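User
Here is a favour to ask of a fellow structure person. I am asking you to supply a protein in sequence and C-alpha cell form. Please set it down just below, with no commentary around it:

Assistant
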Amino acid sequence: METPLLLLLLSAFLLSISNICLGKDIDLISRTQFLKDGDTIISKGGKFEMGFFSPTNSPNRYVGIWYKQIPVQTVVWVANRDAPLAKTSSSTVLKITKLGGQLALVGDKGQAVWSVKTSRSVQNPVAELLDSGNLVVRDAEDEKPENFIWQSFDHPTDHWLPGMKFGWNIETGHEVFFTAWKGENDPASGQYTMHLDPTGYPQLIINNGTTEVLSLGPWNGLRFSATSVDPSSSRGIPRINGPHGVVINKKEVYAWYNLSNDLGLFRFVVTSNGILKLWVWEDEMKQWVSNRGQPSDTCGTYGLCGGNGVCNIYEFRICVCLDTFLPNNNAIATESMSQGCHRRKPLSCHNNGSSSDGFLKYSDIKLPDSKHSWYNESMSLQECEQVCLRNCSCMAYSTLNITNGGSGCLIWYDDLVDMRTVYNGQDLYIRLASSEIPGLTPEPHHSSSLGRKAKILVLCLSMLVVIVLAGVSLFLYFCKSKRKEQKLKQELELPVFDWSTISRATNNFSVMNKLGQGGFGTVYKGALDGGEEIAVKRLSKNSTQGLEEFMNEVICIAKLQHRNLVKLLGCCISGEEKMLIYEYMPNKSLDFFIFDQTRKMLLDWLKRFNIINGIARGLLYLHQDSRLRIIHRDLKSSNVLLDIDLNPKISDFGLARSLAGNATGDNTKRVAGTHGYISPEYATHGIFSVKSDVFSFGVLVLEIVSGKRNNEFSNEDQYETLPGHAWKLYKEGESLKLIDEHISDSYDVAQVLRSIHISLLCVQQFSEDRPNMSSVVQMLVNDVVLPQPKEPGFFVGRRAVFNSESSSGKHATSSLNEVTMSSLDYPR
C-alpha cells in the first residue's frame, strides 16, 4: 500500500511543477493577481490573448497581445516595446501597483521596467483584456465598466484595429497615433509614424521622423481622397465593409472603423518600411493576405511633383503641370519635378475682392494636401465658388462630402501640393485667369462712359447684321455637312456613337482622362453609361493623319474578329469631329513593359513567349484568315496592346492596306511606317507585302527576347542594329548572350534559341527568303527542323543602311510615321 501512496504524492508534485512551468490562463489582473512569464490573459470572447513573447531570432522578451484563434502568432500591441526584457528575466511580472491602479512590469527587485499612468486613482483597480484587443484598466466597483481609467487603444503600437479611435482629444491634447516596429522582428519604436493631421481639414499622413512621406488626402465622407481603388487591380486600400468615418467636433477629431460580423479578422498595420497595409485572415489558406498598401507606387511619395504639379503613374513622365501652368525654372517635367509649377498668366483678383477669374474642372484626382485649407460643412458647391472668388488667396475648391450627391465646401490657399490621378477620384476646381479658360471673357475693370455705350450700340447693330448673314451661311453649310455625315455613317457599317455619349464618357475630354498623344491625335479613357470602359481615339485638326487614315482604319478592322486584334467598338462622327472607339486595354502597350527596367521584370520568359505566339497568330489572321488580306505596315511594340492577362492585341490600323483576291503585295510612292521596323524592299523601292509585316515581326521578337529597342540599339562601334547584333551572335554560336538579363533564371533554353532563330529568318534581306506567317506559327509551336537564316537587312546599321545588293535602284519617297499610338498610356 505504501508504493501506490508514494506514486500518488509524486504525481501530485509533478503536476504542480508542470503548472508552474507551463503557466496558466487568467481572466484579469487585480491587486491580488499578476501575470508572469508563462501565464496568459484570454479575452472573454476568446479572440485575443496576452502574455510574454519573443519575436523570431530575438534575445528579448516582451509583453504583448496577439490573436488566439489562428496558428500564426500575430502581435497587435506591445507594452514594453522600448524597454525589452532579457530572456533570462523570468521573475518579471505584470501587475497592478499600489499607486491607485498603475499597471507596471515589475522586476525581481521591485523596480518598474515599464508602467502606465492612469487618469485617476481608484480603490479596486483591475486590468482586463477585451475581445476587441483592447487592454483596459478600470474600477471593479464602477457600475459602468466602460469608464476606463486607462486603455491600450489610447496608446497603440503599429496596429489600427476595429473600434479604435485614431486622432486627437482636443480637450486633453492627447493624440492617438501609430509607430511602426523598428524591424520585422524588432518591436522597438521605428522611424515611421502615422497621424491624423487636423491642420486645415483632417487628413491621414505618414512621417519618417519629422519628414512627411505620404498623405492620403482629406476625408471626403466615404474615404480618404487617395484611397480610391480600381476594383480590377490590387493597388491601394479597399473600402471598409462596415461603419466607418471621421468625427470632427469641439472635443475630438478622430477616424474610426468597425466591421460587419462576417468579415473575420481585419487589421491595418504601419510596416517598418513606412507602408500602410491592410491584412485579412484567409481561413481556408491559413494565412494573412494583403493588398499592396499605401504608398502603392511612386506617385504615393509626398509632394513628388511640387506645387501645382500632378503625378500620373501611367504617363511616360509621371509629373505634369496643371493646365496653363509651366514648370518652375523652365525645368522639364520629370519623375522628380520637385520644384513644381507656376501660373502662365497671373490672376486678376483685386484688393476690393472683385475678380474676373474663373475655374477649370479637374476630375479623377486625389485632392491636394489640406494643411492650408478652410471648410464649411453646410455650404453648396455654388456658394463655395463665390467664397473662393471673393478671396484672392483661394486657389481651388471642391465638394467636402461626396455622399448623397455631395455637400459642403473645401477650399485651398497657396500652391496645391501632392496631387495625383486616381481611379474614380474627385473633382477639383482650379482657379485661373479668365483669359486662360475657354469661353470665359475677362471683364474690364473700369466703368463705362456715355461714349463707350454709343460704341457698344453701334457694335451691337453691326454684329446683328453679321450674325444674320453668318446664320444663313452656317445653315446651308450645316445641311450640306449633315448629308455628307449621314452618307459617311451609312458607308461605315459600324456602330455610331453620339457626340454627347462620348463627351460624357470622357468627362468632356478632360485632361485627366488623357491616355496619350499620337500622329492621329489624342487618346482618352472613358466609361459608357453602362460602365464599359473604352479608349477614344480622337482625330486632331492638326493631325498628320486625316480622313484617309480614319476611313482606312475603320474599313480594315471593323469586320475583323480575333482574340489577338484590338476590338473596334464603333466610331463617332459629328461635324469636323471624328473618333474611333476601342475596347480599353488596362495594361497599356508592350513597349511600356519590355523597355522599362522595373516593369520588364513582370514579364518572365513564359509570358514573353505567349506574347510572341499571340502576335504571330494575329498576323496570320490578317494575312490569311480574314475576309480581306490585310498588311499592317506599322507593326511595332507600341502598337501591341496588352489586356488584363497580358495577352497581346495588335492595334492601330491607320496605315494598313487591304489586298483583293490572291494578291500578296503592292507598291507605293509614299513609304509610311516606323524607322527600325520597315523592311528593306519597302524602304528602298516602296514595295510592300505580307513579307513586310514578317520583317517587322522578326524585329519585334528580337526586342522581346533582348529587352532592347532596335532603333536605339548600340554597341562599342555605335553602328550595329539589333538584327545585325543577333546575326553576329548566331554565327558565333553565342545567341544566348542576346537574352534580357531579367529573364536569365526563367527561360527554356531550346525555346529561346528557337525564337531567335525564327526571328533571324524573318528579318532576312530578301523578302522571298522570309517565311510566311503560317510557317512562322508552325515553327513556333512545333519542333521542326529550321532552315539556316541568311544575312539580315540593314546589317551594317546606321553608317550604311542597306547591303550592296540592294543599294541601287530608284528609292521611293519616304514618309516615316513614328507617332501612331506609340505614346498611349493605359491606366490599370
